[in-house]
Amino acid sequence: MNKHFLALHQFTREELDDLFLFAKELKAKQKKGIPHRLLEGKSIALIFEKSSTRTRISFEVGAYQLGAQPLFIASGSSQMGRGEPIRDTARVISRYCDGIMIRTYGQEILEEFARYSTAPVINGLTDRFHPCQIMADLFTVIEQKGRYQGLKFAWVGDGNNMANTWIEAAAIFGFQLTLACPQGYEPDPTVLAWARGKGAGNIILTHDPKEAARDADVISTDVWASMGREEEQKEREIAFAGYQVNEGLLDLAQGNCMLLHCLPAHRGEEITNDVLEGPHSAVWDEAENRLHIQKAIMAWLME
Ligand code: CP
Ligand code: NVA
């Protein structure tokens, strides 16, 4: 077992499948009120260099349910915000805590932290990857469709951290993934090259949202301007016109197509209110499942 949870490509399909089973078990225990304090007496630091609602709360509550103490650290209010080097911060925090989750900008910042940390480090989102979210998304698909094998997944929108992580997931799990991104907003080419190097002929990149949505079992989207890209909002609204997930696009998909969005959503931009609130939307279950999958990840790494 790998010590950190930085990106899906660190893991085998079998390891990640085990995590889904573990999350299912923990979710069942939580729903039945059966104690599962697997991390009694431990502490986990939750470091945020960007905003968060779901990630912060699901990690805090998840740690509490596992018997561990969560410490919320907004980087700006710590010495990190005053320039204390990552490597020093990592060595110090990992002397106190049994696990560390970080939400930051560059994946290399996370990797440096992990290199110097003596405790397991979890990726709570970087500019390149959002692995906890995709694990929650796939857990939701498994719960509601019984499987991920043989399904057609579509990504419509920005080739961002979510799209990159879907590509890694498709390469590892072997499902069909078609990504429709505007020209100039494609996913990270190194991630695609890694996936294709794995022999993943199941990943298609197009500029046509209809091609992605046609016969899809699962359609996912995300905001047009991710955190850190807010100043590009206006130019992105122009580039992404035509990349909205709406009823017309959904009509092309399978009748029981599932709609995922990691949230927060911008209604009227990447998705319409009708679709987000409609019968295909699984976004609230998806958001809840962050809690269950992250409890499995924490317990797996820190127990
Ligand atoms: N989906 C997600 O990571 O949400 P937050 O930014 O609210 O944590
Ligand atoms: N792609 C989005 C995801 C937010 C959870 C971002 O990075 O802002």
Describe the SSE topology.
Blueprint: H1 13-32, E1 43-48, H2 54-65, E2 69-74, H3 86-96, E3 99-103, H4 107-116, E4 121-123, H5 131-145, E5 152-156, H6 161-173, E6 176-180, H7 189-197, E7 203-206, H8 209-213, E8 218-221, H9 233-239, H10 247-250, E9 258-261, H11 273-277, H12 283-302
Parallel strand pairs: 1-2, 1-3, 3-4, 5-6, 5-8, 6-7, 8-9
Helix pairs in contact: 1-12, 2-12, 3-4, 5-12, 6-7
Give structural notes:
This protein is an alpha/beta fold. The chain folds into 2 domains: 8-130 and 289-302, Rossmann fold (3-Layer(aba) Sandwich); 133-286, Rossmann fold (3-Layer(aba) Sandwich). 43% of the residues lie in helices and 14% in strands. Strands 7-6-5-8-9 form a 5-stranded parallel beta sheet. A 4-stranded parallel beta sheet has the order 2-1-3-4, with helices on both faces. Strand 1, helix 2 and strand 2 form a beta-alpha-beta unit. Helix 1 (13-32) packs across helix 12 (283-302) and helix 3 (86-96) crosses helix 4. The two termini are 12 Å apart. The structure holds phosphoric acid mono(formamide)ester and norvaline. Phosphoric acid mono(formamide)ester is lined by residues 52-55, 125, 133, 262-263.
Portion in strands: 5-15%
Radius of gyration: 19 Å
The ligands bound in this entry are: phosphoric acid mono(formamide)ester, norvaline
* Secondary structure: helix percent: 40-55%
- Order of helical and strand elements: HEHEHEHEHEHEHEHEHHEHH
Q: What form results from the Cα inertia axes?
A: globular
The CATH class designation of the largest domain is Alpha Beta
The overall pLDDT, averaged over residues, is 97
Termini, distance in Å?
A: 12 Å
User: How many H/I helical runs?
Assistant: 12
- Outline the low-pLDDT stretches: none
Number of strands: 9
- Give the strand order, joined by hyphens, for the main sheet: 7-6-5-8-9
Report the biggest beta sheet as strand number plus sense, adding barrel if it closes.
Answer: 5 strands, parallel
CATH topology of the largest domain: Rossmann fold
Per CATH, which architecture of the largest domain?
A: 3-Layer(aba) Sandwich
